[in-house]
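Q: Could you fold this chain for me?
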Amino acid sequence: MFSLGLFLRRLPLLRPIRRFFYTHSFTGLRKEIFGLKLANPIGAAGTSIKDGGRIMGALSDFGYGFIEVEGSRETLEYLRRGESDVPVFACIKVTCANRSEEDTISSTDRLFSTLYDFADGFVLSRDLSDPNPLLTDESFVRDLLEDIISTRLSEEIYKPLLVKVDTSMDPGLIDTLVGFCRLSGIDGIVLEGDSVAEAVDLASGIVEKTSARFPVVVSAPFRMASEASEAFSKGISLLMLKPYKGNPIPHPKDILRVLEDEYNGQEKTFE
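A: Sure. Below is the predicted structure, expressed as C-alpha coordinates.
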Protein backbone atom coordinates (compact mmCIF):
# COMPACT_ATOMS: atom_id res chain seq x y z
CA MET A 1 0.00 0.00 0.00
CA PHE A 2 1.32 3.43 -0.94
CA SER A 3 2.21 5.70 1.99
CA LEU A 4 2.77 9.38 1.28
CA GLY A 5 4.65 9.76 4.55
CA LEU A 6 6.96 6.88 3.74
CA PHE A 7 7.51 8.25 0.22
CA LEU A 8 8.45 11.68 1.56
CA ARG A 9 10.66 10.03 4.14
CA ARG A 10 12.72 8.59 1.28
CA LEU A 11 13.38 11.89 -0.50
CA PRO A 12 17.15 12.37 -0.18
CA LEU A 13 17.02 16.09 0.73
CA LEU A 14 14.23 15.85 3.30
CA ARG A 15 16.33 14.68 6.26
CA PRO A 16 19.04 17.39 5.92
CA ILE A 17 16.32 20.06 5.69
CA ARG A 18 14.47 18.67 8.70
CA ARG A 19 17.66 18.46 10.73
CA PHE A 20 18.58 22.04 9.83
CA PHE A 21 15.31 23.36 11.27
CA TYR A 22 14.84 21.02 14.23
CA THR A 23 18.12 19.54 15.42
CA HIS A 24 19.62 21.45 18.30
CA SER A 25 23.29 20.83 19.05
CA PHE A 26 24.92 22.16 22.18
CA THR A 27 27.97 20.58 23.75
CA GLY A 28 27.01 21.69 27.28
CA LEU A 29 23.96 19.43 27.25
CA ARG A 30 25.78 16.31 26.15
CA LYS A 31 25.47 13.50 28.63
CA GLU A 32 27.00 10.07 29.06
CA ILE A 33 24.87 7.66 31.04
CA PHE A 34 24.34 3.90 31.08
CA GLY A 35 27.44 3.70 28.88
CA LEU A 36 25.63 5.64 26.12
CA LYS A 37 26.60 9.04 24.74
CA LEU A 38 23.58 11.31 24.37
CA ALA A 39 23.50 14.64 22.54
CA ASN A 40 21.15 15.92 25.26
CA PRO A 41 19.07 14.55 28.16
CA ILE A 42 15.65 14.90 26.48
CA GLY A 43 14.05 11.83 24.89
CA ALA A 44 10.84 10.84 23.11
CA ALA A 45 8.68 8.40 25.08
CA GLY A 46 6.78 5.28 24.07
CA THR A 47 6.48 5.80 20.33
CA SER A 48 4.97 3.04 18.22
CA ILE A 49 6.46 1.84 14.97
CA LYS A 50 4.43 2.86 11.92
CA ASP A 51 5.07 2.67 8.16
CA GLY A 52 8.20 0.61 8.57
CA GLY A 53 9.82 2.99 11.04
CA ARG A 54 8.96 6.23 9.24
CA ILE A 55 7.82 8.03 12.39
CA MET A 56 10.68 6.77 14.52
CA GLY A 57 13.24 7.66 11.88
CA ALA A 58 11.83 11.18 11.70
CA LEU A 59 11.92 11.59 15.48
CA SER A 60 15.65 10.99 15.49
CA ASP A 61 16.00 14.14 13.37
CA PHE A 62 13.99 16.42 15.64
CA GLY A 63 16.65 17.01 18.28
CA TYR A 64 15.93 14.26 20.80
CA GLY A 65 18.89 12.81 22.65
CA PHE A 66 17.35 9.32 22.65
CA ILE A 67 14.11 7.53 21.75
CA GLU A 68 11.96 4.95 23.52
CA VAL A 69 10.04 2.59 21.24
CA GLU A 70 7.31 0.10 22.05
CA GLY A 71 9.22 -3.15 22.07
CA SER A 72 7.56 -5.76 19.88
CA ARG A 73 8.41 -7.99 16.97
CA GLU A 74 7.14 -5.24 14.66
CA THR A 75 10.01 -3.02 15.83
CA LEU A 76 12.59 -5.42 14.45
CA GLU A 77 12.38 -4.08 10.89
CA TYR A 78 13.06 -0.54 12.05
CA LEU A 79 15.83 -1.51 14.48
CA ARG A 80 17.55 -3.73 11.93
CA ARG A 81 17.59 -0.89 9.41
CA GLY A 82 19.33 1.32 11.94
CA GLU A 83 17.77 4.54 10.67
CA SER A 84 17.90 6.31 14.03
CA ASP A 85 20.94 8.48 14.66
CA VAL A 86 20.31 8.49 18.42
CA PRO A 87 20.21 5.65 20.99
CA VAL A 88 16.99 3.62 20.96
CA PHE A 89 15.46 2.02 24.08
CA ALA A 90 13.00 -0.80 23.48
CA CYS A 91 10.18 -0.79 26.05
CA ILE A 92 8.95 -4.32 26.71
CA LYS A 93 5.52 -4.46 28.34
CA VAL A 94 4.90 -7.46 30.56
CA THR A 95 1.39 -8.87 30.16
CA CYS A 96 -0.07 -12.11 31.49
CA ALA A 97 -2.84 -12.56 28.88
CA ASN A 98 -4.30 -15.39 31.01
CA ARG A 99 -0.98 -17.26 30.97
CA SER A 100 0.77 -18.88 33.89
CA GLU A 101 3.64 -17.21 35.73
CA GLU A 102 6.15 -19.44 33.95
CA ASP A 103 4.70 -18.73 30.51
CA THR A 104 4.63 -14.97 31.17
CA ILE A 105 8.28 -14.93 32.20
CA SER A 106 9.26 -17.17 29.29
CA SER A 107 7.48 -15.04 26.65
CA THR A 108 8.98 -11.82 28.07
CA ASP A 109 12.43 -13.35 28.06
CA ARG A 110 12.07 -14.51 24.43
CA LEU A 111 11.10 -11.02 23.28
CA PHE A 112 13.99 -9.53 25.23
CA SER A 113 16.41 -11.94 23.57
CA THR A 114 14.94 -11.28 20.11
CA LEU A 115 15.40 -7.52 20.40
CA TYR A 116 18.71 -7.60 22.26
CA ASP A 117 21.05 -7.33 19.29
CA PHE A 118 19.19 -4.38 17.78
CA ALA A 119 18.23 -1.97 20.59
CA ASP A 120 20.71 0.17 22.53
CA GLY A 121 18.91 -0.33 25.83
CA PHE A 122 15.73 -1.72 27.36
CA VAL A 123 12.87 -0.59 29.58
CA LEU A 124 10.82 -3.29 31.30
CA SER A 125 7.27 -2.16 32.06
CA ARG A 126 4.07 -3.60 33.47
CA ASP A 127 1.17 -3.47 31.02
CA LEU A 128 -1.26 -1.23 32.90
CA SER A 129 -4.16 -2.47 30.77
CA ASP A 130 -3.71 -5.99 32.18
CA PRO A 131 -5.61 -6.24 35.49
CA ASN A 132 -3.98 -9.53 36.50
CA PRO A 133 -2.79 -9.08 40.12
CA LEU A 134 0.21 -11.29 39.35
CA LEU A 135 1.87 -8.27 37.75
CA THR A 136 1.97 -6.52 41.12
CA ASP A 137 3.06 -9.58 43.07
CA GLU A 138 6.48 -8.97 44.58
CA SER A 139 7.76 -12.54 44.22
CA PHE A 140 6.70 -12.71 40.56
CA VAL A 141 8.40 -9.38 39.78
CA ARG A 142 11.58 -10.61 41.44
CA ASP A 143 11.53 -13.86 39.47
CA LEU A 144 10.93 -11.98 36.23
CA LEU A 145 13.75 -9.49 36.78
CA GLU A 146 16.16 -12.20 37.86
CA ASP A 147 15.38 -14.15 34.68
CA ILE A 148 15.93 -11.10 32.44
CA ILE A 149 19.15 -10.19 34.25
CA SER A 150 20.39 -13.76 33.82
CA THR A 151 19.65 -13.59 30.09
CA ARG A 152 21.55 -10.32 29.80
CA LEU A 153 24.58 -11.88 31.50
CA SER A 154 24.68 -14.51 28.73
CA GLU A 155 25.00 -11.83 26.03
CA GLU A 156 28.40 -10.70 24.78
CA ILE A 157 27.58 -6.98 24.92
CA TYR A 158 26.23 -5.34 28.07
CA LYS A 159 23.21 -3.12 27.42
CA PRO A 160 21.37 -0.99 30.00
CA LEU A 161 18.17 -2.33 31.50
CA LEU A 162 15.70 0.01 33.21
CA VAL A 163 12.46 -0.76 35.04
CA LYS A 164 9.41 1.47 34.53
CA VAL A 165 6.99 2.20 37.35
CA ASP A 166 3.82 4.28 37.19
CA THR A 167 2.72 7.01 39.57
CA SER A 168 -0.54 5.08 40.10
CA MET A 169 1.30 2.13 41.63
CA ASP A 170 1.30 1.55 45.36
CA PRO A 171 4.13 3.61 46.95
CA GLY A 172 5.23 0.61 48.97
CA LEU A 173 5.63 -1.48 45.82
CA ILE A 174 7.60 1.32 44.16
CA ASP A 175 9.98 1.48 47.12
CA THR A 176 10.37 -2.30 47.06
CA LEU A 177 11.09 -2.29 43.32
CA VAL A 178 13.64 0.50 43.63
CA GLY A 179 15.42 -1.33 46.45
CA PHE A 180 15.50 -4.61 44.55
CA CYS A 181 16.64 -2.94 41.31
CA ARG A 182 19.55 -1.23 43.06
CA LEU A 183 20.77 -4.48 44.58
CA SER A 184 20.22 -6.68 41.51
CA GLY A 185 22.10 -4.67 38.90
CA ILE A 186 19.24 -2.87 37.16
CA ASP A 187 20.66 0.34 35.70
CA GLY A 188 17.89 2.78 36.60
CA ILE A 189 14.20 3.52 37.15
CA VAL A 190 11.76 5.19 34.75
CA LEU A 191 8.90 6.92 36.57
CA GLU A 192 5.93 7.50 34.27
CA GLY A 193 2.87 9.65 34.90
CA ASP A 194 0.27 11.88 33.25
CA SER A 195 0.95 14.68 35.73
CA VAL A 196 4.36 16.34 35.42
CA ALA A 197 4.25 17.72 38.96
CA GLU A 198 3.31 14.37 40.52
CA ALA A 199 5.89 12.41 38.50
CA VAL A 200 8.70 14.85 39.30
CA ASP A 201 7.75 14.90 42.98
CA LEU A 202 7.83 11.10 43.28
CA ALA A 203 11.03 10.88 41.24
CA SER A 204 12.79 13.46 43.38
CA GLY A 205 11.81 11.38 46.42
CA ILE A 206 13.60 8.38 44.89
CA VAL A 207 16.64 10.53 44.13
CA GLU A 208 16.72 11.66 47.75
CA LYS A 209 16.27 8.15 49.19
CA THR A 210 19.07 6.77 47.01
CA SER A 211 21.37 9.75 47.65
CA ALA A 212 21.32 10.46 43.90
CA ARG A 213 23.32 7.29 43.27
CA PHE A 214 20.64 5.54 41.23
CA PRO A 215 19.61 7.11 37.89
CA VAL A 216 15.97 8.18 37.72
CA VAL A 217 14.24 8.98 34.41
CA VAL A 218 10.88 10.76 34.27
CA SER A 219 8.42 10.08 31.44
CA ALA A 220 5.63 12.68 31.49
CA PRO A 221 3.85 15.22 29.24
CA PHE A 222 6.41 18.00 29.65
CA ARG A 223 5.37 21.09 27.70
CA MET A 224 7.28 23.96 29.32
CA ALA A 225 11.01 24.47 29.69
CA SER A 226 10.50 25.50 33.33
CA GLU A 227 9.14 22.01 34.10
CA ALA A 228 12.21 20.38 32.57
CA SER A 229 14.56 22.75 34.36
CA GLU A 230 12.94 22.05 37.72
CA ALA A 231 13.16 18.29 37.16
CA PHE A 232 16.89 18.46 36.43
CA SER A 233 17.45 20.70 39.44
CA LYS A 234 16.03 17.92 41.62
CA GLY A 235 18.61 15.39 40.43
CA ILE A 236 16.56 13.59 37.77
CA SER A 237 18.91 12.17 35.14
CA LEU A 238 16.83 12.14 31.94
CA LEU A 239 13.41 13.26 30.74
CA MET A 240 11.15 11.61 28.19
CA LEU A 241 8.46 13.74 26.55
CA LYS A 242 5.24 11.76 26.17
CA PRO A 243 1.98 12.60 24.37
CA TYR A 244 -0.98 13.68 26.46
CA LYS A 245 -4.70 13.62 25.65
CA GLY A 246 -4.15 12.96 21.96
CA ASN A 247 -1.60 15.72 21.45
CA PRO A 248 1.57 14.83 19.52
CA ILE A 249 4.93 14.56 21.22
CA PRO A 250 6.37 18.09 21.18
CA HIS A 251 9.66 18.97 19.53
CA PRO A 252 12.27 19.53 22.26
CA LYS A 253 13.95 22.48 20.58
CA ASP A 254 12.41 25.22 22.74
CA ILE A 255 13.14 23.31 25.96
CA LEU A 256 16.72 22.71 24.90
CA ARG A 257 17.24 26.38 24.12
CA VAL A 258 16.21 27.38 27.64
CA LEU A 259 18.42 24.71 29.15
CA GLU A 260 21.26 26.01 27.02
CA ASP A 261 20.70 29.54 28.33
CA GLU A 262 20.72 28.25 31.91
CA TYR A 263 23.92 26.35 31.28
CA ASN A 264 25.58 29.49 29.94
CA GLY A 265 24.37 31.67 32.78
CA GLN A 266 24.68 29.30 35.73
CA GLU A 267 27.33 26.81 34.64
CA LYS A 268 24.67 24.15 35.08
CA THR A 269 25.45 20.50 34.37
CA PHE A 270 23.14 17.50 34.25
CA GLU A 271 24.89 14.70 36.05
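A (continued): The radius of gyration is 18 Å.
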